[in-house]
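ok, trying the design again with the full structure, not the truncated one.
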């Protein structure tokens, strides 16, 4: 198969860089364009020294890319800047495949987008077309899509753990509490006081309490699975490590037992290459999935009657972003879904 020519928008950010890291060894992909307007003219190894051994294109401004020569583009730009750029790319090349790793096309309801992101959506005609790219839930839709909105890292971890349970009516979707923790790469590469080593190291801090934008995605997809509007209690925390994510979801059981939850998750993911449900008594850990596209999910009985604790972990830059985007790209091009993504976790 001829290699697909790939571009990465926002290659100087963490998600863009991890897309480049994974695509550089993908047997069916050739990176031919890298954009980073603030670093235009630099080599990728000047911005990320760990790419010293790769022969990659120089970083350029996105306006200077010939999009007609590309088969797919990964977008690692911040939300709010993505919509008009993707619209311009698709206008230049309507056949190109878009893997958007920003939040700009994840919400189906235009009013919800304005509520959570503070401005009207600027490409509504594309928002209607976008497929929510949680691969395990929307595989058929992704396969036929032109524009895939890859989920946020928190929603990926939470939804993989809870959607099968909500769909099977095993849990009360009106009583979900999610305690989530992410490494500092989840905050992006820009200079921020709260992510400085002396500020974030040796500490744990909550943020966006009751107002984190990923709540909207979680509620959208659990609501779709349950067939009713859902509101969840979601609190994220910053933990002093570079990558990794752990979500602890506290749920109320309808009629089921914790063992029933585990059995349903095992059934749902029996044939999934990247989602693993741990055996009873085995707990997921971030170090088990670091640097990989794998997800671990576990279920523990709460000591409170009729409640259970569902644990899920992933690498926020791989399955939580770039890896899942490549998983979707593989589907869009008719490739084996696991191509370029079967790296074992880096441990210790």
């Amino acid at each position: 198969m001829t290699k697909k020519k790939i571009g990465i928008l926002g290659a100087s950010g963490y998600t863009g860089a991890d897309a480049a890291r994974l695509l550089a060894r993908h047997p069916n992909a050739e990176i031919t364009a890298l954009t980073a307007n603030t670093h235009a003219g630099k080599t990728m190894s000047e911005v990320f020294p760990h790419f010293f051994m790769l022969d990659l294109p120089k970083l350029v401004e996105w306006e200077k890319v010939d999009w007609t020569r590309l088969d797919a583009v990964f977008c690692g730009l911040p939300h709010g800047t993505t919509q008009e750029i993707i619209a311009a790319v698709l206008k230049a090349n309507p056949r190109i495949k878009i893997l958007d790793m920003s939040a700009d096309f994840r919400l189906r309801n235009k009013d919800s987008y304005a509520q959570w992101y503070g401005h009207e959506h600027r490409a509504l005609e594309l928002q209607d077309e976008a497929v929510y790219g949680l691969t395990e839930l929307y595989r058929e839709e992704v396969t036929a899509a032109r524009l895939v909105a890859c989920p946020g890292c928190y929603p990926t971890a939470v939804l993989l753990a809870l959607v099968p349970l909500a769909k099977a009516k095993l849990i009360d979707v009106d009583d979900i509490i999610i305690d989530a923790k992410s490494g500092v790469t989840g905050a992006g590469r820009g200079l921020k006081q709260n992510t400085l080593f002396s500020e974030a190291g040796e500490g744990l801090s909550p943020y966006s309490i009751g107002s984190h934008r990923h709540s909207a995605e979680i509620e959208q997809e659990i609501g779709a699975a349950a067939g009713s509007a859902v509101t969840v209690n979601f609190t994220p925390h910053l933990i002093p490590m570079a990558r990794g994510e752990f979500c602890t979801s506290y749920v109320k059981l309808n009629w089921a037992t914790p063992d029933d939850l585990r059995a349903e998750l095992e059934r749902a993911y029996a044939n999934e290459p990247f989602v693993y449900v741990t055996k009873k008594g085995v707990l997921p850990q971030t170090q088990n999935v670091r640097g990989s596209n794998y997800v671990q999910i576990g279920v523990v009985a709460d000591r409170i009657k009729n409640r259970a604790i569902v644990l899920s972990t992933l690498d926020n830059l791989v399955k939580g972003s770039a890896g899942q985007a490549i998983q979707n790209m593989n589907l869009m091009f008719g490739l084996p879904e696991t191509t370029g993504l079967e790296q074992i976790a880096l441990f210790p």
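Keeping the full-length input from now on. Residues 154-316 form a domain with the Dihydrodipicolinate Reductase; domain 2 fold (CATH 3.30.360.10).
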